[in-house]
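Sequence in, structure out.
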Amino acid sequence: MRMKAFLFLSIAIVVVSAGCISGNSAEKTDNLAKCLTEKGVKMYGAYWCPHCQNQKKAFGDSFQYVDYVECDANGPNGNPPACELAGIKGYPTWIIKGVQYSGEQDLGTLAKIAGCAY
């Protein structure tokens, strides 16, 4: 019985330690969002768009560091002319290195395309 308890405790310690060593997920996502912005990546969307909301949720609080352009004039800081100029046809749309990527994107995919660590 003691052996099972010892084994269980050992496994729990390893799991908890691995979580601590792997780093802070929020910090990792902050760094990704900041890198995307530094590389000139922009996300175009609309406040009412459910896919845009999903994309924002994927970043969590780190979305504050993403260069986001609101395409609906009724949204916060709405800038429809910027969206028209960029040729945005749907939401969300990411522009990375001059190429448009439509729809929700995985954070790892965004990092890879932009050349950011994640």
